[in-house]
Amino acid sequence: MNSQISAKYYHCTQQFEREKKKIFANTWIFAGFKHDFQKDNDFRTLKVNDIPIVVQKMKGEVKAFLNICSHRFSKIQVSEFGNRPLLCPYHGWAYNSDGIPVGIPKKPLFKKYNKKELCQMKLKEFRVERCGSLYFLTLNNKVKSLKEYLGEYYKEIEEMTNGFGKQIDVNRMKIKSNWKVIIENTMEAYHLGLVHTDTLAKLMPTTSIDNLKFSFCGPHSNYIIPLLVDENSKKLKFLHSPFSDRKWKINGFKHYLLFPNLLISSSYGTTFSVSVINPITSTETDFINNIFLCKLNSNKSFNDVKSFIDTAVDYNRKVFDEDKEACENVQEVVPYTTQPGVLSLEEKRVHEFQKEYLKFLNEF
Questions:
Q1: What percentage of the chain has pLDDT greater than the value 70?
Q2: Cα 200 to the chain's mean position, in Å?
Q3: Residues 6 or more apart from 280 whose CB is under 8 A from it?
Q4: What pTM did the predictor assign?
Q5: At the topology level of CATH, where does 152-360 sit?
Q6: pLDDT by residue (tens digit) across 287-317?
Q7: CA atoms within 13 A on the CB side of 197
């Protein structure tokens, strides 16, 4: 079957601007992990569609605001992560948990603001909702709830991410590729034999439509791939003994796309990979991969699994380096063709992703 989108969709600047308005402004976007907001005033900053946003825990609740001071438009939180009050570093305006300025240095030098006027200077607020260990925000306050958006996957993601233990790696790289090239690369196993010869290809059997189990839920999808070593084998029983009490298990590899740009996967439920695919331009993407260990048995420490952790981190970084090269090779030449591309039955998730993508653009 033919690809549903043509080559120009992977490099056209005008198309990228449409995606920002139609997709990223109208869906739920990953905003942080539960552990990012453990204490009051813990915050992280991010950009969605170039809009600067601060996500911060205030009075026990995680809130998201436009990260621009109402006074003279400075960034309020400058660092990517931190813990400090919602206080502008330029002139010291302070904001409460509703985003209303409540601390104005040298206040008598300003006119006497009444309550209504102060509320009019409130920071623009965005909806924030959580599923398991993951927080999401949306730029469109009118969209359906996160639970409705994730549908039947909500419970699955909740249970899976509640199994996260210690974060063991953050791998961030700029990839000179359109964000959709990266997303589509992760959703098919057709490339494993050549791109991941010494990594994934040695872990997974030769894939075919018979041993790939696909699942679809609205614009989201997953697949399960069997692995060459069974969870119940003697080798893995020994290797996984420090995690034997973990609640979330799978005998294989499971990979989710939460549309549009969040990828979550796990092998056996012992390690978890969470990748955020943030488009920068039509031809460049910020790729952030987070690796978590599952929760250890109560009688085990991280010293007991240090070798396992080191191996997992090195392995994942090598896989993503291989994918980076493959995606950049696509991006380098895709502007010079007009063909639509061709998809096999093994690439069904790519086909469905493209269909849902076009629905958001009102082109399907």
A1: 98
A2: 21
A3: 174, 286
A4: 0.95
A5: Naphthalene 1,2-dioxygenase Alpha Subunit; Chain A, domain 1 (3.90.380)
A6: 999 999 999 999 999 889 999 999 999 999 9
A7: 2
